[in-house]
Design goal:
Largest sheet: 10 strands, parallel
Number of helices: 11
Oligomer: single chain
Structural class: alpha/beta
Number of strands: 16
Strand content: 15-25%
Bound molecules: phosphoenolpyruvate, manganese (II) ion
Radius of gyration: 21 Å
Mean pLDDT: 95
Low-confidence stretches: none
Order of helices and strands: EHEEHEEEEHEHEHEHEHEHEHHEEHE
């Protein structure tokens, strides 16, 4: 099996470095049998040198024209780290944006239950000026005896909702066998909390040509989340949005404990956008707005929330879904806070 290398060194090109000087460094690395991962930035271009450390270290990189600094990457995550890409990544889908000042506002039903429920919700979400529509087709349920999602039938409904509203669709992929069908219907592929460390699935979406929404596992550390993102990025797909959705603690008044500290840490460690799911974290709708506000204030690049026309009849997660009748007001409040913080709904 081939040895898999991560970038070992960062070559920081000075602000005045020319294209020729950058290409020269890349060519020298390649001649030496290494690879170069070039990230142009506002201040400087950063080149990640991928290959065997000793081999790369044997090159007199510091002496090449235009090179400002050569630094080792000490963190276990490489491609997703801020070191390699100091500028924030913006994920753009069908003209909608998340990251770097664009606040992604993703909303929709927990689960696609039927055509009517989904289309009604999609219209309300679009009317409220949201960024994307969410909706589960394949549902990861704790009990095998509960509704597991409509599967492919739901994908047809989501496609219709997208056509009607123009909103990009976010839906979860649970099984590599569904990758083609889900890719066909989804604009953004969600990897759910329970699959955060399903490494085969991560590699699969790493090879896909669609952005990935990667949710933090309820028992996963921030570093494990970043390493999961690294699995996706390593396959070539660096269009990743991370999502904090609450972790397991001893606390029982909320469904999970929303770890807002992790958002601040992630914003420091990675160039990827980070969003927050206050719906699954809280498990109750009265807490969704305060937690959404807190998410914006801590520096999150967006939120993902659930809404349903009749939450009391919902097949999944009823208590946390915002009734569509109240969604417009909810969205106004979210927009107000986002704008107050200098963010624009993407
Ligand atoms: C979801 O967003 O549909 C979901 C199931 O959330 P999580 O994976 O965070 O539990
Ligand atoms: Mn849900």
């Amino acid at each position: 099996m081939a040895t898999i290398h991560a970038p070992e060194l960062l070559i920081v090109m000075g602000g005045a470095a020319t294209t020729d000087e950058i290409e020269h460094v890349v060519a020298r690395l390649e001649e030496a049998g290494a690879q170069a991962h070039v990230t142009p930035g506002r201040q400087a271009t950063v080149i990640g040198a991928i290959g065997e450390r000793e081999l790369i270290a044997s090159l007199p990189l510091e002496t090449y024209p235009g090179v400002e600094q050569v630094l080792p990457i000490l963190k276990p995550y490489k491609l997703v780290s801020r070191e390699i890409s100091p500028d924030p990544t913006v994920i753009e889908v069908r003209g909608r944006r998340i990251g770097d000042g664009y606040f992604g506002f993703v909303a929709g039903p927990c689960t696609v239950e039927n055509r009517d429920q989904t289309l009604v919700t999609a219209r309300v979400v679009a009317e409220a000026g949201c960024t994307m529509l969410r909706g589960g087709a394949f549902k990861p349920r704790t009990s095998p005896y509960t509704f597991q999602g409509l599967g492919e039938e739901a994908l047809v409904i989501l496609r219709e909702a997208r056509e009607e509203t123009g909103l990009p669709v976010v839906t979860e992929l649970m099984d590599p066998r569904h990758v083609e069908a889900v890719l066909d219907a989804a604009d953004v592929i969600q990897i759910g909390a329970r699959n955060m460390q399903n490494f085969m699935l991560l590699a699969e979406v790493g090879r896909a040509d669609k952005p990935v929404l990667l949710k933090r596992g309820p028992s996963a550390s921030v570093e494990e989340l970043l390493m999961a993102a690294e699995y996706v990025a390593r396959e070539g797909n660096e269009r990743i949005v991370l999502c904090e959705r609450g972790i397991k603690t001893f606390e029982r008044t909320t469904r999970y404990t929303l770890d807002l500290g992790s958002v601040a840490v992630l914003k420091h460690e990675t160039h990827l956008p980070v969003i927050v799911d206050p719906s699954h974290a809280a498990g109750r709708r009265d807490l969704v707005l305060p937690l959404a506000r807190a998410a914006a204030a801590v520096g999150a690049d967006g939120i993902i929330v659930e809404s349903h026309p009749a939450p009391e009849e919902a097949l999944c997660d009823g208590p946390q879904q915002i009734p569509t009748a109240e969604f417009g007001e909810f969205a106004r409040e979210v927009r107000e806070v986002a704008e107050l913080l200098g963010r624009q709904i993407g």
